[in-house]
Design brief:
This protein has one domain: 23S rRNA-intervening sequence (de novo design (two linked rop proteins)), CATH 1.20.1440.60. Helices cover 84% and strands 0% of the residues.
């Protein structure tokens, strides 16, 4: 069975985001931004899963385009959390790399899929 890299990476990222959100709530006592990053960060994997059962190539591209928007929003929240001193440079550097990698993979899949239509 062929490995689905985007499926695996988006699920692993969602797990990181859940734990990151728990850290923000429990250790930093931050409740609003943590919910924002939790929502957008976990929705990426959900949209990737939805795209697996897309009704058409256009629907597949549409679902991944929404995932692309969600990962971009997640990057925004991560940058905001870093720039407001909720997370350290080390914490930020660790998670932002995964977010940017996901965004690049999703963007590549969308571009490739559009060329196939």
């Amino acid at each position: 069975m062929k490995k689905n890299i985007i499926k695996e990476k988006s699920f692993s990222f969602a797990i990181r985001i859940v734990k990151f959100s728990q850290y923000l709530i429990n250790d930093k006592r931050e409740f609003v931004l943590s919910k924002q990053v939790l929502r957008s960060g976990t929705s990426v994997g959900a949209l990737v899963r939805e795209s697996e059962n897309a009704e058409s190539k256009a629907d597949f591209i549409h679902k991944l385009s929404i995932a692309q928007k969600e990962i971009n929003e997640t990057i925004y929240w991560l940058e905001l959390l870093y720039n407001t001193d909720y997370v350290s440079q080390t914490q930020f550097d660790s998670i932002i790399v995964d977010a940017i990698e996901l965004k690049k993979i999703i963007t590549s899949i969308i571009k490739t899929s559009k060329n196939i239509i």
